[in-house]
Amino acid sequence: MAIKKQLVYVALLLILLFSKPYTSYAVPFLINNHCLQVSAPRITASQSCPGHVIPAHQTRNLHSEELRCSANHYTHVRLPESFDEEAWQDLKNISRHDAADILRQQPSPAWKGVINYRTYLHWNWQECQLVTDAHHCGSYHVCEKTYLPTSDGGMKQVEHCHWKAKTCYADITMHESRYCQDGEGKMVFDVEFLKKDKARWSPDSPGFIDRLANGYDLLPGEEEVVTVSNLKNIARTSQSARLAPTLFIEDPKNEYIFNEHIHNPQPDSLSCRFKGEDEVSFTVTTRKRIASDSPNAFSLPKTFDNEHIDPLVWQSAPGLDGSRQEKGYPFIMRAQDFSAAALNEVSEDVTEKLKNIIVRVQLYEPSIFGDRLKSTIYIDEAKGIQQTLNAISNDQKIRRSTLWEFKLKNGDNPDKNIYRSYVPTLFYYPGKIFLSNEALSYDDQLAPNTIYTLKLTVYQKNLPFYHQSCESDPDAWDCQWYTLWGLFSSKRYEDNYFSKKSLDVRFRSNPKVDQRTWLSSFWHLVRYAQIAVPLGAVALSASYLL
């Protein structure tokens, strides 16, 4: 062993001496050995994971071993309680107290679950290694002499000095982990939402909202995704020596307070241990309503006897062979909504503004990069809704059911005609100064025999429970002139006040109908060129600089 060390030293010394001829070194004459063996390598049975053996070559100076639990979670979707909304509204008009009692008699949202998780054995040991490192070995001063040209054409000698790490033998800490066979643990949990105190929240209380008599109530179309996890970080690669039971609500409709209770606590409770089992209870208390994403309660239409209604009404169009095709293109989209009446009642309690629903229908077409947004139209509630008897139940339990019919083609304005698109941006903004939307758009019809998707989303305008645009909330601080009227506030962007959830309807266009023109092909080509030109300019500039 000593001979090997001397050979290594001689090789390193030769490299240092002949690598830089203009360098002077203060080289240490010995490669020091800082290794200190506290415990010899030997096969070791794990104390944390019974049955697992740590190999001898990974046990020198073994100084720690522990179990770490992997992350796992349980997800529950909380939906509004189902009850006779119409009968409740009638009762509310007679007695607000009786109507509140009806809601308070509903069982509190509660559920149980089990989170199973794997355990992994982690241990640290040390190896004696030859390293070049200032922390383990120290450092020495090195000066290098170089020659630089002077202004008079001569050369001058310049000396640069710095500290360089020494080379030595040192104990380097190593880490290893292995799956602990048969050591899986579990966390049993239960969650309960608590009702608001009746003495502080009743029809006699200031600001009381009848439809939210329990505090935690969800309105039609709303949902909360509630996740319980055994660790705060639920990524698959996360591991911890101690459990951290966590409850998280995605897009909460209320401001909540979470309380956690550990059943039968022991000194090792929540520690990651072999076949560990813990029981945790969560209670959720509601403070107040907060702004959240607009709900989307639209669904595919059905008759009162639960038979499906075609969501699309087709318009006839001339075919490629000159004959009239009955299914030329979708002209009307149908959707059903049972929430409008209930949300209208709530809006009367919380705002003086006239609540309105704005429906956004987006048409997506296939492309090599996946579905691409082709066009978008917006439909106002007052102009889009149409009453129907098809959705009313036999026993009149849902008397306010409504079937909405949206015209997909209504004039030449591209905001109202899904088969028209705006000209590319390069031409749109200069032209916007002088021209109307109709003049700045073109017919953009469907390609034959192609699968398209219609996506319907909703904006609950003027209902303060949901995110609003600056148009609806002009007095907000982030809608003032110094924010350019919402330009620098992302929550005022359209995608943030329309519902995240969409109602999707897929259809295949008629293979015998093609109403596209040369003008649409021209604008498509210009649109692609508009993207390609900046990319080409960037590439050309990069090649020039390099």
Structure description:
This protein has helices spanning 2-19, 85-94, 96-104, 134-137, 340-350, 381-384, 425-432, 494-497, 518-545, and strands at residues 23-25, 44-45, 53-54, 64-70, 73-78, 110-117, 119-132, 139-149, 155-165, 167-179, 185-193, 224-229, 239-240, 246-250, 254-262, 277-289, 312-318, 324-337, 356-365, 372-380, 385-386, 402-407, 420-422, 441-443, 451-461, 503-508. It has 546 residues and is an alpha+beta fold. α2 (85-94) runs antiparallel to α3. The chain starts with a helix and ends with a helix.
Secondary-structure blueprint of this entry?
Blueprint: H1 2-19, E1 23-25, E2 44-45, E3 53-54, E4 64-70, E5 73-78, H2 85-94, H3 96-104, E6 110-117, E7 119-132, H4 134-137, E8 139-149, E9 155-165, E10 167-179, E11 185-193, E12 224-229, E13 239-240, E14 246-250, E15 254-262, E16 277-289, E17 312-318, E18 324-337, H5 340-350, E19 356-365, E20 372-380, H6 381-384, E21 385-386, E22 402-407, E23 420-422, H7 425-432, E24 441-443, E25 451-461, H8 494-497, E26 503-508, H9 518-545
Give the integer mean of the pLDDT values. Answer: 86
> What is the β-strand count?
26
What is the C-alpha radius of gyration, as a whole number of Å? 35 Å
- Overall spatial form: extended
The main β sheet shows up as:
4 strands, antiparallel
Q: Decide which structural class fits the backbone.
A: alpha+beta
Beta fraction: 35-45%
pLDDT below 50 for ≥5 consecutive residues: which ranges?
Answer: 15-27, 391-400
What is the number of helices? 9
Major sheet: arrangement of strands: 10-7-4-13
- Give the CA-CA distance, first to last residue: 52 Å
Helix content: 10-25%
